[in-house]
Structures are given as C-alpha cells and as structure tokens.
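Narrative of accomplishments. A recurring question from our advisory board has been how the design workflow behaves on a single, concrete structure rather than in aggregate. To address it, we present the structure tokens for one chain from the evaluation set, followed by the sequence designed for it. No filtering or post-editing was applied between the two.
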C-alpha cells in the first residue's frame, strides 16, 4: 500500500489540511480501476469505519498478490469539514466560508477535460481545490463508490439509472434494503463523475454506461458506527470487489438483490407543515399504506388544539427519518419509497440540499 498526502493550503495564512490517499497497485492492467471515498460530509463516519476494515483486508490480499486492479481509497475525504467546529459541534456538511454543501458544485465536464481540473488550481478557494482533487482522482477510475450515511435510515443507495440493473450486484453485496434510481442531473460528486462519462464526447449523451459505476451509498444513520457493523459492511464491499474481479476470492457468491429499486419521482418527501415537537408513530423499514398516521407535531404544548397529524400520501417503504425531535416548518421528516410517482413535482437532481 502506497500512502501519500495531498496538502490543501488554507485561504488564510498558516492554515493547511492534509488529505491521506491510499493506493494499491493491481496485477492486471486491463482490470477496471477503482476509487472509493468516505466522509465527504465530514461527520458521516460509517464509511470511514468500513474502509478501516476493508483496507485491513486489502493489505492482506496485497501481500498474497490478490489485488488485480489499481485502487485508490480515501478513508476521510474532507479534512476541511472535519476541522469546522461551531459552538462545540462539527459542521461537516456545509463549508462555512461559502455556505456550500461539500457534496455539491463539483465541476460538470467532459472526461477529456479531466486534466484541466488541476490547471491553475492554486488560485481557487480551499474547498474548491479539495473538490477538484477528489474528482480528478475519481475520473481516473471505472468504478467509483462514495460512502455516505443519512440521518436515521435503512441501508440504501442512489444509483443513476444509466448503471441499473448492472449495479444490482453492489446492492446485493451490501445487503441494501432499497435503491433510489437517480437521474444524474445534479452537481453532487457521484453525478459529476457519471456526467463526465456520459458526455465523454461533448454534446453526445450516452444513455447506458456498461462496465462503469458511480454511486452514493448511504450506510444507514450517522450513529450507526459500530465495529461489527463496519466489519460486516467491509465484508460486503469486499464481496462486490471480488465479484467484479477486482480482488481474488473464489469463495464469493452473491445472491440477487431483492429490495425495491425506486425512481426518485416515486419518493415521497414528507415535510412538517408546522414547527414543533415531533412524535413519530412509524419507524424506518416499516411499510405504510395511504392515510396511515406517520407523526404528530406538538405545535402548542398543553393546548386542546395544540397538535397536528401527518399522514402517508400513498403506500410505500419508510427509507429515512430525521433524528431531530424539534422541527421547523417545512423540515424533512421522512423519505418514503413508493410504487407510484409522487403528486409533488420534483426538480431534476437530488432530493435534498
């Protein structure tokens, strides 16, 4: 394993961040190259724990000559966000200087323009330089996996429909309980990667990308960071790599993915109609029917008319739930994956900011 560091100089004197990059050299130049990162949202740590145990397995495989593909692993992709402490809490989702989501505003370029990402990079703000370094590395790979987590959630993934159903092997290997099929229309990391592949020839969009994969994996919730869980997830990702011929392991046999694969248009974003204390009646992983009571919002504690009920707009699987119990008006409460499209018109791109 080769370990290097990318130094991201700060935007003020005396500040710099180091980004560790772990590289494994493969034995087969024709094998698909792999890029895996975790914690782009700096406080989302299930992926960092997973990669700790996966790298342990990769080092053993490397010593036995069992790695066929070149691999890049970034266990924690956002040292800038990890260093942002505000009143005792980490703010790892948004860059405080620009108020920009660390997983948005990645450059949308054709693959042939990859080298331009690093041209005159020193003149750019630190967070932009970090993003350009990350996507530059990812665009040198064929399989790109971005490990995140949600608030309270099932294990699921956002997968561009251009990769489906080929990517069902990843969903099976990681025992995902749902897949949300995205449209690739945002500037999030995994969609910026797939954009470069789709528009490899500028102006000509590829609808299918066989042999490629760029995916966001949501490893349950932010607090689901446990040793046995991380080892199990690392084993699952190892099994995916083995099934794709990235590492040698003849014992791996993947079952078929049995969970729902739901277009984003079929996802009901349940939002609170008023501010208050939320009392959930249903949990993640439960299937609900139209009209089922999902939550009660206490809007005026102690008053006879001080509550407001929230009901399911249609039948579906509760994929995520917010962990906050004091909610603002219009705040996200749940995502429900449904069989039919939502009546709420969705803007192209991701479900959340």
């Amino acid at each position: 394993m080769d370990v290097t560091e990318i130094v991201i100089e700060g935007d003020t004197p005396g500040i710099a961040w180091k980004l560790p990059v772990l590289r494994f050299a493969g034995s087969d130049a024709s094998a698909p190259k792999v890029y895996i990162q975790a914690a782009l949202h700096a406080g989302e740590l299930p992926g960092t724990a997973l990669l700790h145990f996966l790298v342990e397995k990769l080092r053993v495989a490397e010593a036995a000559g069992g790695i066929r593909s070149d691999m890049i692993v970034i266990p924690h992709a956002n040292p800038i966000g990890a260093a942002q402490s505000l009143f005792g809490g980490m703010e790892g989702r948004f860059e405080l200087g620009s108020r920009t989501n660390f997983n948005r505003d990645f450059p949308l370029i054709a693959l042939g323009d990859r080298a331009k990402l690093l041209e005159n990079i020193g003149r750019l703000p630190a967070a932009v330089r970090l993003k350009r370094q990350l996507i530059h590395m990812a665009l040198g790979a064929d399989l790109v996996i971005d490990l995140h987590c949600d608030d309270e959630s099932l294990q699921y993934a956002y997968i561009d429909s251009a990769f489906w159903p080929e990517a069902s092997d990843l969903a099976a290997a990681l025992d995902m309980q749902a897949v949300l099929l995205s449209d690739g229309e945002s500037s999030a990391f995994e969609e910026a990667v797939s954009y470069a592949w789709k528009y490899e020839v500028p102006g000509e969009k590829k609808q299918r990308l066989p042999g490629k994969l760029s995916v966001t994996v949501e490893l349950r919730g932010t607090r689901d960071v446990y040793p046995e869980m991380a080892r199990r997830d690392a084993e699952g990702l190892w099994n995916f790599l083995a099934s794709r011929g990235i590492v040698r392991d003849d014992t791996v046999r993947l079952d078929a993915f049995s969970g729902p694969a739901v277009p984003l248009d079929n996802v009901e974003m349940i939002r609170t109609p008023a501010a208050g204390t939320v009392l959930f009646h249903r949990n993640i992983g439960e299937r609900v029917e139209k009209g089922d009571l999902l939550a009660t919002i206490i809007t005026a504690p102690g008053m006879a008319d001080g509550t407001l009920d929230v009901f399911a707009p249609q039948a579906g699987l509760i994929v995520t739930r917010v962990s906050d119990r004091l909610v603002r008006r219009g705040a996200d409460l749940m995502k429900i994956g449904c069989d039919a499209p939502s009546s709420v018109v969705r803007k192209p791109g991701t479900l959340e900011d």
